[in-house]
Amino acid sequence: QVQLVESGGGLVQAGGSLRLSCAASRSIFSFNEMAWYRQAPGMQRELVAAITSGGSTNYAESVKGRFTISRDNAKNTVYLQMNSLKPEDTAVYYCRGISFASYYWGQGTQVTVAS
Question: Does pLDDT of 102 surpass 90?
C-alpha cells in the first residue's frame, strides 16, 4: 500500500513562508505525476501545483510566482515552497500521486495564514 505523508504546515503571518513536504513510501519515479492540492472550508479541493516525472511543472494562477514545487528523488519527497503567503492561502494542503491509473492521497496538513 502506497503512503503519502505531508508535513510542514502551521500558522504563519501574511507575507511569511512555509515549506511543505510529501514523503512517499516508495520511489517517486513510480509516479507519473505528483501534485499539491488544497481545500479551504466550504470550498472544493483545487490544484495548487503539479510536477511530472520528467520535471515539468504546472501552477494555479493564484500561486504563480509565489509557490514552487520540486522533487528530491533520492528522498522520495516532493516539496511545496510557499512564499508571500496570503490569508486566502489558508487551507488543508494535500499531496497526490498518480501512478498509471491509480491515485494516491495523503492525509493533509493545515496551513493557516494570519492577516
Answer: yes
